[in-house]
Amino acid sequence: MILLGLVFLDGGLYADSGLQVVYVALQVYGWWVWLYGGDGRDGLPVRRTRRTEWAALIAAGAAGTALLTWSLSVWTDSTVPFWDALTTAISLMAIYGQSRKLLESWWLWITADLVYIPLYFYKDLKLTSALYVIFLTLCVFGLLAWRRDFRARAVPGPGPAPVAA
């Protein structure tokens, strides 16, 4: 993460650079929630995102994108302030969702990666762009795995055995 932060800083992707620092704190939070947020180790179940959560995530993402775009436009020499801000906001939404094991967080990661790949290529970060193709592939695998887990938990198992009188 430190190396990616430096690559992004050098490439003028200031929000992405700062995001690497935020990732460390959010990953510790996510680890704690996964460890203690459910029934025992890694007991937090995969679940769907509720409408109220979507509303809050979209509002926060839009506000974050607007604020970061403005900040990057005013205080930096960024050549892509909107795209840097948008990908950062979507990534923050995705990592929050992942820390809560929200199935749709994978769709947010996929969306972010689909913007990151050409953005990094445009910024002449071709190896980073290729790395994000790999991340995109991992996101698809993560989505499929969480979907299987979600469906397995949703299927009711056999009931208790009848008690003989």
Explain what this protein looks like in three dimensions.
Helix content is 75%, strand content 0%. It is built from 6 helices and no strands. By secondary structure, the protein is an all-alpha fold. It has one domain (2-39, 59-151). It is globular, with a radius of gyration of 19 Å. It starts with a helix and ends in an 11-residue tail after the last helix.
Short recap of the structure:
The protein is mainly alpha-helical and 165 residues long.
Query: In total, how many domains does the architecture comprise?
Result: 1
Distance between the termini: 63 Å
Which class of secondary structure composition applies to the elements? Answer: mainly alpha
Helix run count: 6
Taken in chain order, the helices and strands follow as HHHHHH
Radius of gyration: 19 Å
The averaged pLDDT comes out at 88
Q: Give the beta-strand count.
A: 0
Question: Can you tell me the overall shape?
Answer: globular
Low-confidence spans: none
Percent strand equals under 5%
Helix content: over 70%
- Biggest beta sheet summary: none
Question: Which helices and strands appear, and what pairs or packs with what?
Answer:
Blueprint (H helix, E strand, L loop, with lengths): L1 H9 L3 H23 L14 H25 L5 H19 L5 H18 L3 H29 L11
